[in-house]
């Protein structure tokens, strides 16, 4: 059996084939331009690389609730051409096979939960801190959705005293994404995140906000693990800073696993999404 995965991001789409153990056989990267152009390349890929099912994780916001008219759509993105695009419908018209449709972060969360750092625990959260912040919640080995998917990157956090940085989120004066994602780091320092020194004071601010988010995730979802990935988390010195602040903000309220095993980097690195897609394809097949 051959499985397919799509990791649909705002700058590139990755299409891949592999098996139910999460082994990747082949992959291609397609620039995200217009839906017509990008989807034609996706269609071509799975026509020349036949599969039995496809797991799809898309940038959003997207419709994930089958009871709503916009199920399967990319809904309100400002990305030209992609707003109100019926992504799942497009694929269903081309490929007569089981398809699993979810967000890019839910897909990556599923990959880490099944084959990555969280494979031995049933409850985990995968949060990526890159251009934006997004998180996928796995509860009892399943992707958690409510009325729609979560938007945990936009959780409110408390500003540190003296931090008067103007939020980079156009909607929120104080959200994690607006104060601590890659663009905020860039605007705070005047440099690209990768060029900011490891001991720059900006990292203590970023770590504080991420630690606040981890406390919020802990009390909201009671995960066994919180996985932090994305461009900003390439700064590995953030982990001990986050652990220290997390400890002080949780303040002994509840027992959590040892922090070095609780708030951790991804196990699959840049492969979490593609592996998640393959395993969601398998799930779609077993549930079809
Ligand atoms: N080594 C690094 N240290 C700090 N920041 C970094 C590093 N590498 C990339 N970044 C920042 O991370 C952001 C890019 O994030 P990422 O590499 O996760 O890609 P992305 O796909 O654009 O993000 P998203 O998942 O939000 O769409 C940019 O703002 C970039 O400046
Ligand atoms: Zn926001």
TrEMBL record:
Stated family: Belongs to the ROK (NagC/XylR) family.
Organism: Lactiplantibacillus fabifermentans DSM 21115
Gene3D superfamilies according to UniProt: 3.30.420.40
Keyword flag ATP-binding: yes
GO MF term (any one): fructokinase activity
Keywords of this entry: ATP-binding, Carbohydrate metabolism, Kinase, Magnesium, Metal-binding, Nucleotide-binding, Transferase, Zinc
Superkingdom, natural source: Bacteria
Protein name in the entry: Fructokinase
Enzymatic class: transferase
Family annotation (InterPro entries): ATPase_NBD, Carb_Metab_Reg_Kinase/Isom, ROK, ROK_cs
Catalytic activity: D-fructose + ATP = D-fructose 6-phosphate + ADP + H(+)
Required co-factors: Mg(2+)
Coiled-coil annotated residue ranges, if any: none
EC numbers, comma separated: 2.7.1.4
């Amino acid at each position: 059996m051959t499985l397919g995965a799509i990791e649909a991001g705002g700058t590139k789409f990755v299409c891949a084939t592999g098996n139910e153990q999460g082994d990747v056989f082949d992959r291609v990267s397609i620039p995200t331009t217009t839906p017509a152009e990008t989807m034609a390349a996706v269609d071509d890929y799975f026509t020349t690389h036949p599969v039995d099912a496809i797991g799809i994780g898309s940038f959003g916001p997207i419709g994930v609730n089958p009871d709503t008219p916009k199920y399967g759509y990319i809904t309100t993105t400002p990305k030209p051409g992609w707003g109100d695009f019926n992504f799942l419908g497009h694929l269903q018209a081309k490929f007569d096979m089981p398809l699993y449709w979810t967000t890019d972060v839910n897909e990556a969360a599923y990959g880490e939960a099944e084959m990555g750092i969280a494979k031995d625990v049933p409850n985990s959260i995968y949060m990526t801190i890159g251009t934006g912040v997004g998180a996928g919640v796995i509860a009892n080995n399943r992707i958690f959705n409510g009325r729609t998917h979560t938007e945990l990157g936009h959780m409110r956090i408390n500003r540190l005293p003296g931090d008067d940085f103007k939020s980079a989120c156009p909607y929120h004066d104080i959200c994690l994404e607006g104060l601590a994602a890659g663009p905020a780091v860039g605007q705070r320092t005047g440099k690209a995140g990768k060029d900011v020194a490891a001991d720059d004071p900006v990292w203590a601010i970023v770590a504080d906000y991420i630690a606040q988010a981890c406390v919020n995730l802990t009390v909201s979802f009671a995960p066994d693990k919180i996985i932090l990935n994305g461009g900003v988390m390439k700064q590995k010195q953030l982990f001990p800073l986050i652990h220290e602040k997390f400890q002080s903000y949780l303040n002994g309220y509840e027992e959590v696993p040892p922090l070095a095993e609780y708030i951790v980097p991804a196990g699959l690195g840049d492969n979490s999404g593609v592996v998640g897609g393959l395993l969601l394809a398998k799930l779609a097949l077993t549930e079809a």
